[in-house]
Amino acid sequence: MDRSSRTWQSTAVSHASPFIFAIVVFFLASSSTSEKAPYPTFAKDATKAPAVSSYDYIVVGGGTSGCALAATLSQGAKVLVLERGDLPYGIPSVNTINGFITTLADLTPTSASQTFVSTDGVISQRARVLGGGSALNAGFFTRASPDYVNKAGFDPKLVKESYEWVEKKVAFEPKVLAWQAAVRDGLLEVGVLPDNGFTYEHIYGTKVGGSIFDVNGNRHTAADLLEYADPSNITVFLNATVHRVLFKTDERRARGILYKDMEGKEHMAILNEGSLMNEVILSAGTLGSPQLLMLSGIGPAKHLMGHGIKVVLDQPMVGQGLSDNPMNLVLIPSPRPVEISLIEIVGITRFGSFIESASTHISLPLLNKFSSHFGHFANQTTKLERLRSIIGHHLNIDPTGFDAGLILEKVMGPLSSGVLELETINPNDNPKVTFNYFKDPRDLQRCVQGMETIVKVLESKALSSFREPLISVQDLLALVVALPLNLRPRHVNTAFDLQQYCIDTVMSIWHYHGGCQVDRVVDRNYKVIGVGGLRVIDSSTLLNSPGTNPQATMMMIGRYMGKKMLEERLTLRMK
User: Fold this and answer.
1) According to the annotation, is 242 in a ligand binding site?
2) Does residue 484 have a cis peptide bond before it, meaning omega lies within 30 degrees of 0?
3) Is 251 helix (H, G, I), strand (E, B) or coil?
C-alpha cells in the first residue's frame, strides 16, 4: 500500500466511530509486509545516513526494549532506531550457545560486548549490538510475577498479550539434559518445592524456564522482533553513536538527536513537526540512558557544570538508584562429561534468592586471556596454578581445561543501590558506576541463605555422579576464591565463611538497573518529568529486577508501551 493510499484512508476514518477506526487501523497494520532478518531494506550503516532526516519517533538504542518498541510503533508511524553497535547476525560467537564466553571475553573496541568495571571492583559487560543484552546473556526467558505487574500499574491483559507476542518469535522450551536435570532434582531433594515443570510463570519452587536458544543451540535475540516491523515505516542506522538530545530553543522539549557515524561524521535526526505525539525515546540501557540524559543537560546541575555541560534541567535523581543483583557461584569440576548448557532451570526460594545453573568445558587459556586484561588483579598465574592444585590431584585434567557445572544464586531486588556519574563527556566511554553490593545487610543475608541452599544441593544424591568425592565442598569454595572473577580483595577466611565468601567473590549477572527510575526521573508513562517529547523505556527505569531474569519483561515492556503510545496517537488523531 503506497503512502497516498494510507493518507487517504487515515483522513477518511478520522471522523468515524472508534470501533470502525480501530478496525481500519488493524487492517492497515495487518496488511503491511514484513521482512526477515538481517533486514536488507531498512537496516543500514550510519555512514549511509543523510545529514538531516525526520521521523515521528526516534528510538535511541536497539536493545531488548528498543527493538520491541520500534517494531510496534512502525505499525502506525515513521520510526528511526539508532544503534551504536552492528547487526548480531554476522557475529558467529553471538549466534550460538558455544560462543557465550567468547563474546564476553572479546575486548576489542567494536565488539558486541563492552566491558566495564564498577568502583566496587566487579567486572561486567554492556551490549554494543542490535538486540542489546539478549545478544550477550545466558538466554533464560521467564516472566515477572503478577505482583510485580500489579505494582507497576500495568494492564494485566495487555501484559499477557505482549509477552505472548514476544514468545512467538524468540522463546523456546529447552531440552533438559543430564547436568541440568541433576540440579533440578537436587533442588527438589533439598526442599525447593514444588516441582512446577516447564513454565514461563514466576512461581515459588523449582521449574524449567524458557530460553532464547532453540533446541539446536542457536540464539534468537530481540533483534528478531524487528521481523514484526513495517519495513516501509522503519529505518535502523547501525554503528550510530548518539551524542545528545536536541531541544527546542523556546521550550524544554526534545526536537531531535545529534549522532555520529563510525567515521566521525555528524548527523541530525529531527522529529516531524505537526504533532505533540512525536517523541524521542531513550532505550540505551541502564548505563546508556542516564549517561545520555546527562550529556544532554538533564541531571544534577553541579555534576553537569563540572563537566562543562549546559544545564537544561536540574534533575538530581538522574543516575541515582543504580542497582545490580549480586551473583555468587560454585564451580564443580565433573568426573563425567557435561552438556554445554546455560540457564534452563531455576529454584525460586521464599527467602529471596534464585538458584540457577549452567555447564560447559572450562578453557584455561581463554580464562587466562580474559583475566590478564585486568592488571589490577594480582598474581593471576599463581591463582590459576592454585586452581590446578585443588582439582588436579583428583581428576585427570587436560591442560587446556576441564568439564564442569556451576550453580549460582542471585539475590532478588536488590535493596542496596548506588549511583552513576559521568567520567568523561565522550558517549563512547563507560560512565563511572557504583552498585554498593550488600550495603543493605538484608541482601547479604539472602546471599548466605542462597549459598547454604547450593551447599545442600552439592551434597544431594541427585548431584553425586557429577561430584568427585575426594573434592570437598570446602575445596570447591576455595577453587572459586582462586579464580580471577573480580577485582575485590580476598580474605583468609573467604572459603570458610559464607558471608565473607558472598562479599569477596560477588559477580554481576548483568541484571543491573536504575538511574532513570519511575516516579523519580520518569512518570508512569515513562515520560521524562519536566521535559516534553522525551521518554525513557528500558531497564534504567526499574526499581527492582523483574522475575528471576529480566529480559522477557524488558521485551514485553517495549511491546506494551508501543501499543499504548499508538493508542494515544490514534485517540488524538480522532479528536
Assistant:
1) yes
2) no
3) coil
What are the residues whose beta carbons fall under 8 Å from the beta carbon of 542, sequence distance 6 or more? 513, 514, 517, 518, 550
Closest Cα partner for 127 from 114, 140, 117, 116?
114
**26 pLDDT exceeds 60?**
no
- Mind giving me the DSSP string for 321-390? EEB--EEEEEEEE-SS----B-S-EEEE-SSSEEEEEEEEEEEHHHHHHHHHT-TTS--HHHHHHHHHHH
Q: For residue range 318-366, what is the model confidence (pLDDT) as tens digits?
A: 999 999 999 999 999 999 999 999 999 999 999 999 999 999 988 767 6
* Residue 269 half-sphere exposure toward CB, CA atoms < 13 A: 30
Which residues, in sequence order, are CB contacts of 529 under 8 Å at separation 6+?
315, 521, 522, 523
Query: Is 192 labeled as ligand-binding?
Result: no
CA distance 384 to 389: 9
Question: What residues contact 408, with CB distance under 8 A and at least 6 apart?
Answer: 327, 328, 329, 330, 355, 356, 357, 358, 454, 509
C-alpha cell read off for 267: 548527523
Write down the residue that cell numbers 487517504 correspond to. 8
pTM metric for this prediction:
0.93
For 127, the 3-state DSSP assignment is strand
| DSSP type of residue 222 | G
Q: Which of 481, 406, 463, 28 is nearest to 232 (CA)?
A: 28
Q: Is 511 annotated as a binding residue?
A: yes
pLDDT tens-digit map of 368-397: 665 565 544 444 444 556 666 666 655 556
Q: Which residue in the list 202, 220, 267, 511 is annotated as catalytic? A: 511
Which residues, 6+ apart, have CB-to-CB distance to 203 below 8 Å? Answer: 196, 348
List the end-to-end C-alpha distance of the chain, in Å, as a whole number.
25
Is 129 one of the annotated binding-site residues?
yes
| Residue 502 CA, distance from chain mean position | 23
Strands 507-508 and 432-434: unpaired
Place of cell 537496516: 43
Alpha carbons 192 and 284: distance in angstroms, whole number? 37
Local structure of 32: helix, strand or coil? coil
The secondary structure of 153-210 as a DSSP string is T--HHHHHHHHHHHHHHH-B-----HHHHHHHHHHHHTT---EEEE-SS--SEEEE-E
User: Chain-centre distance of CA 89, in angstroms?
Assistant: 18
Q: Alpha-carbon distance 545 to 152, whole Å? A: 12
Give per-residue pLDDT as tens, 120-136: 999 999 999 999 999 99
- Residue 511 among the catalytic residues: yes
Per-residue pLDDT of 397-455, as tens digits, reads 666 778 999 999 999 999 999 999 999 999 999 999 999 999 999 999 999 999 999 99
Q: Is 550 annotated as a binding residue?
A: yes
Phi then psi for 271, rounded to 5 degrees? -75, 140
Q: Would you tell me how many other CB atoms lie within 10 Å of the CB of residue 281?
A: 31
CA-atom Rg of the chain in angstroms: 24
Q: Is 510 annotated as a binding residue?
A: yes
In sequence order, which residues have a C-beta less than 8 Å from that of residue 215 and are 6 or more positions away?
Answer: 172, 174, 175
